[in-house]
């Protein structure tokens, strides 16, 4: 454990202007507050915050961060208060300690509500000042180093899983690769003890069998580069055990099939020498196609810069090589933290990095705990590709991202307005996955809205959260529209006319926010007709029996302008199309389900509120289902598809359900404009010699 004078000396080495008295006061304060508290290892508890402060000095962080590290557990684990800390150490330190205290409350991920709320606080605290995250990462790293002292295996595994799921990816996102690798290794040891033992054992065996092969290869690389006149440092190591494990899992191979378990790092004086070194290595040994990445010209979103390549060395041995300048290496290993040593003034620009803005937007857009956790994990895990706007702006996205993900990465409003896309000048479907270097042009429309179907292929948390938010808003508006029409009908059955005043009092009695909230509650079936009537005119239902059936008026409710799948759903059992006589089933907290009036589901006496509905005047488009019995001979299906095409019907599904010589029975789903359109198609099919029978089902 660092002694008081040792900690102060460390800070004064890189920050001579630091307030020595304030640092000493913070050290003494944490020792006094934690007093006789012990850690699982048996060490005094205050040894932990002191060690965390020591990690912060290795990153050369400012004195406020060092003091925050010393005090970060005092509010949670002692009688210290934020007010007391502010009085003794100033408002900035108090704000940072408060932020880290909130982060300390992130617990087991399966307890979704609590985990999501604490994660929300985590991200918001980070947005204020990323030093909060740096202290928390150091706190977690030291806790992982002492994790083996905890006796309960279940608790060790919970902490390790939390580290692997949240803290290691966040360390990567701010470029702190040393922290990320050590956290992953320590968590891997707890979560997969057999895998950890096997891989570390095999690596130890390779080292003993092959002696100094890593040093030998590093010397060969250095000699080749020195002969080319390059002043470089070369170091080599076996790959990280967790990295090997992950590669084995992803490729479904065993340890012996992993050929590139050694990695080498080349440090140069400047950027020109990086590219010169790359050329020399590619001329000296065969490079492996598809494994070269240039993160110098296109850095990762966390600022990481390096050239990556893979070579086939002697005896068909594959190795990875990273080439970077010495300055890049310093920034790469400790990422965002490395910039703090050079920061001037008290500004906090690091809280505004783009990926963090995306996370905050996800916090605002997420509807519930599961959604927040899902979208946030999508945002912090990454394997990136690079794509460009037509004007040359570069965007980094996870592998597998589509044009829709790109549109939302540029701006949420662009994603919401997207109707089409050109990739490298060619029109392609919106679900097209992007490749490295693609130029993406989003075509937008002022009348466009996000589609529910996009959730089936987008991969970024930002896109998913924005689409869900837009669809939810539209669903609410459409359900409220249905509720408004039901409200007019309910109000018409009251013994007296109701006005705005009665409506206002009803909203208050029902403890709702506003008129839209009332209409949504009616449309979604959360309020019964009796409840609404009683709220509007108290006592109006007093003499009616509790099981009184309310008779609807003859006027049907138009669903014109509503979107299938949002405000209502067309029933799969009967596939109603515009022109059919329809009825709606309304259940609490479900979309209105629209059935044809002769649907057998209705005949079974379903338990739901029935609504008499009608199609709007300009309603067009639905999916109808037909059963076709075709003669089993060559060319039959071709003739049927020709009939459908000539009648401008799009086939969305075709399935053979039965085969009896000489017939085949098929079910086909068709996109049609209305009942008349579907009827014409059935008539055309029945007139064909290829069709034995055609009927709607």
TrEMBL record:
SMART domains attached to this UniProt entry: HDc (SM00471), RelA_SpoT (SM00954)
Keywords: Kinase, Transferase
GO molecular function, one term: kinase activity
Alphabetized CDD domains for the sequence: ACT_RelA-SpoT, HDc, NT_Rel-Spo_like, TGS_RSH
GO biological process, one term: response to starvation
Pfam (any one): ACT_4
Enzyme class, spelled out: transferase
Chemical reaction(s) catalysed: GTP + ATP = guanosine 3'-diphosphate 5'-triphosphate + AMP
UniProt key word Nucleotide-binding: no
Cited PANTHER family: BIFUNCTIONAL (P)PPGPP SYNTHASE_HYDROLASE SPOT, GUANOSINE-3',5'-BIS DIPHOSPHATE 3'-PYROPHOSPHOHYDROLASE
Protein name according to UniProt: GTP pyrophosphokinase rsh
Biological source species: Novosphingobium guangzhouense
């Amino acid at each position: 454990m660092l002694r008081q004078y040792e900690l102060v000396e460390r800070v004064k080495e890189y920050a001579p202007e630091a307030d020595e008295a304030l640092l000493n006061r913070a050290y003494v304060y944490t020792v006094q507050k934690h007093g006789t508290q012990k850690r699982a290892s048996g060490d005094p508890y205050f040894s932990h915050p002191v060690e965390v402060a020591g990690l912060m000095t290795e990153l050369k962080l400012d004195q406020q961060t060092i003091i925050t590290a010393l005090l970060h557990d005092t509010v949670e684990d002692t009688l210290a208060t934020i007010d007391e800390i502010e009085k003794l150490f100033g408002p900035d330190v108090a704000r940072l300690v408060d932020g880290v205290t909130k982060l300390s409350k992130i617990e087991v991920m399966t307890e979704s509500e609590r985990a999501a709320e604490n994660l929300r606080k985590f991200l918001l605290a980070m947005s204020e000042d990323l030093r909060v995250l740096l202290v928390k990462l150091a706190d977690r790293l030291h806790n992982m180093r002492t994790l083996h002292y905890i006796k309960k295996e279940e608790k060790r595994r919970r902490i390790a899983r939390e580290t692997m799921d949240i803290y290691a990816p966040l360390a990567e996102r701010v470029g702190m690769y040393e922290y990320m690798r050590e956290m992953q290794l320590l968590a891997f040891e707890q979560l997969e003890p057999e895998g950890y033992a096997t891989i570390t054992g095999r690596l130890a065996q390779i080292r003993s069998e092959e002696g100094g092969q890593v040093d030998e290869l590093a010397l060969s690389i250095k000699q080749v580069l020195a002969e080319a006149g390059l002043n470089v440092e070369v170091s080599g190591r076996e790959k990280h055990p967790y990295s090997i494990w992950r590669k084995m899992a992803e490729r479904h191979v065993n340890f012996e099939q992993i050929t590139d378990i050694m990695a080498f790092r080349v440090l140069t004086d400047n950027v020109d020498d990086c590219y010169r070194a790359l050329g020399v290595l590619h001329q000296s040994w065969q490079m492996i196609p598809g494994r070269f990445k240039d993160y110098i010209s296109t850095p990762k979103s966390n600022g990481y810069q390096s050239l990556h390549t893979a070579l086939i060395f002697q005896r068909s041995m594959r190795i990875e090589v990273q080439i970077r300048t010495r300055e890049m290496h310093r920034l790469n290993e400790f990422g965002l933290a490395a910039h703090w040593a050079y920061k001037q003034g008290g500004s906090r620009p690091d809280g505004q990095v783009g990926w963090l803005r995306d996370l905050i937007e996800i916090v605002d857009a997420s509807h519930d705990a599961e959604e927040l956790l899902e979208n946030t994990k999508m945002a912090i895990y990454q394997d990136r590709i690079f794509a460009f706007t037509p004007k040359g702006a570069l965007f980094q996205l996870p592998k597998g991202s589509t044009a829709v993900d790109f549109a939302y990465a540029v701006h949420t409003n662009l994603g919401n307005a997207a109707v089409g896309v050109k990739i490298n000048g060619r029109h392609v479907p919106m679900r097209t996955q992007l490749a490295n270097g693609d130029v993406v042009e989003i075509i937008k429309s002022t009348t466009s809205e996000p589609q529910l179907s996009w959730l089936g292929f987008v991969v970024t948390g930002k896109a998913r959260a924005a689409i869900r938010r837009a669809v939810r808003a539209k669903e609410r508006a459409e359900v409220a529209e249905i509720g408004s029409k039901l409200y007019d009908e309910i109000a018409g059955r009251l013994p007296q006319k109701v006005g705005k005043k009665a409506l206002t009092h009803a909203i208050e009695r029902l403890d709702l926010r506003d008129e839209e909230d009332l209409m949504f509650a009616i449309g979604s079936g959360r309020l019964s007709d009796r409840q609404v009537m009683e709220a509007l005119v108290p006592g109006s239902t007093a003499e009616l029996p509790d099981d009184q059936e309310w008779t609807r008026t003859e006027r049907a409710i138009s669903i014109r302008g509503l979107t299938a799948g949002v405000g209502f759903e067309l029933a799969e059992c009967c596939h109603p199309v515009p022109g059919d006589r329809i009825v709606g089933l309304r259940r609490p907290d479900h979309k209105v389900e629209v059935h044809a009036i002769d649907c057998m589901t209705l005949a079974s006496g379903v338990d739901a509120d029935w609504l008499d509905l009608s199609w709007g005047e300009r309603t067009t488009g639905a999916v109808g289902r037909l059963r076709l019995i075709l003669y089993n001979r060559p060319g039959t299906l071709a003739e049927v598809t020709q009939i459908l095409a000539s009648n401008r019907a799009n086939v969305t599904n075709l399935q053979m359900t039965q085969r009896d010589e000489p017939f085949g029975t098929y079910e086909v789903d068709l996109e049609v404009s209305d009942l008349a359109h579907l009827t014409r198609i059935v008539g055309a099919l029945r007139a064909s010699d290829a069709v034995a029978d055609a009927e709607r089902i």
